[in-house]
Specification:
It is a single chain. Helix content is about 0%, strand content about 50%. The strands form 3 sheets. Strands 1, 4, 6, 7, 9, 13 and 15 form a 7-stranded antiparallel sheet that branches. Strands 5, 8, 10, 11, 12 and 14 form a 6-stranded antiparallel sheet that branches. Strands 2-3 form a two-stranded antiparallel ribbon. It is built from 1 helix and 15 strands, in the order ββαβββββββββββββ. It is an all-beta fold.
Length: about 210
Amino acid sequence: MRILPDVELLSVATPDEQINGDHFVKYNFGEFYNLDRGSESTLVLPESYQKEGDIEVIKNANLIEMHFDKPGKAGIKLMTPLKNQNVYTISFLVKGEIPLALKLYRIKNDELQQELEHGIKYIDNFPVANDNWTPFKGSVLVPYIENDSVMLFLGKTNDKIGNIFIKNLRIVEHLPFKQAYNKRAPWAGRRKGYLCILRALEKPERL
């Protein structure tokens, strides 16, 4: 997921604009994010982690070794610094004897919520080799999650037994380059229709 179309298709007034009495809903058509252009910054990841299930973990510098002796879901959980409505890319090298599972979960009031949907999802059996490092690189758009946190799970969700090795785990935050798509010459007009249904509120609320 390196090209994200219509990320800002629908937006509302910022908190500062709403405080000043400026309330609106805005549609922004014909724009996409290009993650292969623009700038990025590497996030600092925590050194600590939690274990889930039956697993032995050895962490040494940039290498994480996970040894699974029993069937069932098991792995490590790391709290990440991912925030609202930003785009991130997770990358690392992996090798081992069993497929890798990678999950991003929303954490609300210290309780596990649903898996994040916009990008990295349903990665339960990422194929790995035992004698070669396989690169993984996946991007995610974090939706509006208020002040909640995001947890990263790495491990397995199957009943296989074996080892997984992860090297050079990295998360970067993107300031993506914005590009227009479906460009048309100024004199070549096109009319498009869009249906918007509005409902009056009995009690005014902030957008």
